[in-house]
Structure formats: structure tokens, C-alpha cells
Design brief:
By secondary structure, the chain is mainly alpha-helical. It has helices at residues 2-9, 12-29, 39-73, 86-110, 112-122, 137-155, 159-177, 184-188, 197-203, 208-211, 221-225, 252-257, 268-275. The structure holds zinc ion (ZN) (2 copies).
Length: 276
């Protein structure tokens, strides 16, 4: 318990900065999966998203802590009906935060107004670990932040479980977006339960048939259970969204405004017609 408390006391921002430095270095040293046209610019625009995240999180973290503590103090949620050992509560806690996020992510692909914000994350045409930062702040805080509060309310999860969920999920996010070649055998073993980088990159494929799949962040189990798992070999994947391909649409400023810009979604059918 003491080790866990020490772990949870580490500021998440330090973990994030440590991990981006680690993965960015690994991407220089190891075999990369994709070629970059303008890597420094790409990093610069994605880092700006992290800057906004950092600033807004100073406020949002207080909202989350206050809401979850209020729910816990009023003993709201399923876990208050059972007497579970601490370790099981923590394991289930991490799984259930991931489970609720799976549904929030799936809904954001299905609902046009939410997709306008979520497509910012999918807009990256050349991906590396910094793509994890590329998420519209409205979505990151209001939508996915609320998903954590709702999970805590339904299942009776506390701040320790939430802290652990962040510590487990953050390395997954970096790994999943990193521009490193991962072997396919990983997808056939580890990928039966967990989301591997190759499996998450299928979710970043341009073709909507694949974009609307593999929504899970940690446990790919949810996609397998609810029929949204799909696979495509990594070398056949075209990243990004057709409607965001131009260079001017890859800047921080354009992406921040993009939910308020009307643009039709280029679907699988359109892509096939284009190829003919
Ligand atoms: Zn998505
Ligand atoms: Zn992603």
C-alpha cells in the first residue's frame, strides 16, 4: 500500500514528460514504421496541445477530485454493495475506467458533433508518440473527463483506482502511437487481451471501416467482446483522415478551430471511388 501511495503521489505531468522524452529517443534509435516529411514541425504542433492540456488540467483535476470524492462520501456505486479485497478493487477499477472510456470513445465516432472534436486526434497523417497529445481540449476534458466521473459513479471507484488507471494507461497511450516497428506476433499473443501499437494504428487508418474499430485504450478485450475488433497488417495502413491531408490543416491553430469548420467526412466508399 505504501509503494502504491508513493506511486500515486508522483505528478502525472512528470510521468508524461519522462515518457515523451523516452519514446522520442527510442524513435530515433529503433526501426521506425513511417516516414516523416516535417518532423520538428509535427512535434511542435503536438507539443502545443500538451501545453493547453497542462494549463487546463490545473483546473480540471480539481473538478475530478471534488466529484469523485463527493460520490465516494455518499457511497454511490456498485462496489459499495460488496466487500471486495483492495487488490481486486484496484484491478477491477482500472478495467472499469477503461471499459467506460471504450463506450465514450465509441459514441464519439457515432455522434456527428462529438466526431468534430474527436477527429482532431485522428487527423495526424504521420504518427509518433506525440500524437497522444493531439486531442481537442474540449473533448479531452469535458467528454473523456466526464467518462471517468461517470465510471466512478456507476461502479463506486475511488481516487486511488483512478490514479492507478492514469499510471497504467499513460504508457499505453505513448506506446500505441509511437513510430516504432512492432512485430506482428505481439498482436497475436499480448493483443488477445491488450491493445498493441499495431492494433491501435488500425484505429488511425483513413478508411472509416477501420477507423470505427479498436476503440479500447488498454484492454482490447472490450472490442473483442462487443464486436468492434478489426485487424489490418501495419504496412498496409494509411494514417490520418483524407479531409485533413493538406499541410495547413495539420497546424495547432487550424486543428483547435476545426470542430467549428464544416467539412464532410470522406468515407470508405469515397476512397474506393477515388482509387478507380
Ligand atoms: Zn477514435
Ligand atoms: Zn490514437
Amino acid at each position: 500500500m505504501e509503494t502504491l501511495n508513493k506511486l500515486l503521489a508522483i505528478d502525472l505531468n512528470y510521468i508524461i514528460i519522462g515518457l515523451i522524452v523516452l519514446f522520442y529517443s527510442l524513435e530515433q534509435l529503433l526501426n521506425t514504421q513511417f516516414q516523416f516529411k516535417k518532423r520538428p514541425q509535427h512535434l511542435f504542433h503536438n507539443i502545443l496541445f500538451f501545453g493547453v492540456f497542462y494549463l487546463l488540467n490545473l483546473v480540471w483535476a480539481i473538478v475530478i477530485v471534488f466529484s469523485v470524492e463527493w460520490l465516494n462520501n455518499n457511497q454511490i456505486g456498485l462496489f459499495y454493495l460488496f466487500d471486495l479485497p483492495l487488490w481486486l478493487k484496484l484491478v477491477l477499477g482500472v478495467m472499469l475506467f477503461d471499459f467506460v472510456t471504450y463506450w465514450f470513445h465509441r459514441i464519439s465516432h457515432l455522434t456527428p458533433v462529438l466526431w468534430r472534436f474527436h477527429r482532431v486526434h485522428h487527423s495526424d497523417t504521420s504518427m509518433d508518440a506525440s500524437t497522444f497529445f493531439r486531442g481537442h481540449p474540449v473533448e479531452t476534458f469535458l467528454w473523456f473527463g466526464t467518462s471517468n466521473i461517470i465510471a466512478a459513479g456507476i461502479f463506486g471507484l475511488d481516487l486511488i483506482a483512478l490514479g492507478l488507471y492514469f499510471i497504467v494507461s499513460t504508457p499505453f497511450f505513448f506506446l500505441e502511437h509511437s513510430n516504432i516497428k512492432f512485430p506482428v506476433w505481439l498482436d497475436k499473443t499480448f493483443g488477445l487481451i491488450f491493445t498493441t501499437p499495431n492494433i491501435h494504428k488500425v484505429h488511425h487508418e483513413q478508411d472509416q471501416f477501420y477507423t470505427d474499430s479498436n476503440f479500447s485504450d488498454i484492454f482490447i478485450l472490450w472490442d473483442r467482446l462487443f464486436g468492434t475488433f478489426k485487424y489490418k497488417p501495419p504496412e498496409q495502413i494509411n494514417l490520418g483522415l483524407k479531409e485533413f491531408e493538406e499541410d495547413r490543416k495539420q497546424t495547432f491553430w487550424y486543428l483547435i478551430r476545426s470542430p467549428f469548420i464544416s467539412m464532410g467526412r470522406i468515407t470508405s466508399g469515397d476512397l474506393k471511388k477515388e482509387k478507380k
